[in-house]
Amino acid sequence: MKFTVDEFRAWGNKCVTLLGMSGVGKTCLSTLLRRQDWFHYSGDYRIGTRYLDEPILDLIKSQAMQVPFLRDLLRRDWIFVRNNIKVDDLGPVLSFIGKLGNPERGGLPLGEFNRRQALYRDAEIRAMQDLPEFVRKAQEIYGYRHLVNDVGGSLCELDEPAVIDLLARHSLILYIRVPDQDKTMLIERAQADPKPLYYRPEFLKTAVKDYLALHRLEFVAQIDPDDFTRWVFPRLFHTRVPRYEAIAGPHGYQVSATEAMQVRDEQDFLGLLEQAIASKGA
Q: Structurally, how many domains does the chain consist of?
């Protein structure tokens, strides 16, 4: 959605999609707004609790079945397994997505990694398609006036124009960009506290080829999973920046992460949005 400042102020039921790299502060800002009586729609939480719930449970059960004691309990239906995913703790999703590389070091073969990547991509698309329904639920069931859509950092990787069009029709898209001086810090933070990541197939194919050549390895099974994850993230970061900008340019607005970090309450947030609208209209 596009607005003038006056139109935005008159918008009775605001819906804002926060777009940006993992670690840029989207969830922190959304959590702040939740305390200010906004409905917090977390795309990653929806992915884990709705669209990847069964695949995650299947993975857990397959591991449990390798333990004789647990195998007997599961087969007799004497125990059950459930996910405990939280908005600020996506551990089960992260474990399911996994890491590429040597199975003896906790890595996944390329074929299985690609299968899970495809499931994650489909789940993210479906989670974003659910936004209009959650706008309705937030208002009619839970009594919230406004909604903040906290999307995953990989939204720009989906190559699904229909998803972006849907978000642009039902929400104001706000891209939180990382200032040049903060890019190294954000990369290091993301490497230290990884989030579930989706890689476009073309990007992953090239990255794997380059990593193997750099380390003089012949097979994916020789890759150190943790080292590859740390090595590939800066490359992923820099390829995502123009993709975010290509969405925000025609469909939304931009603010810096520095500006977003200064938001302390709803009024600060609304003021930041009005400033972004005014700047684009100037």
A: 1
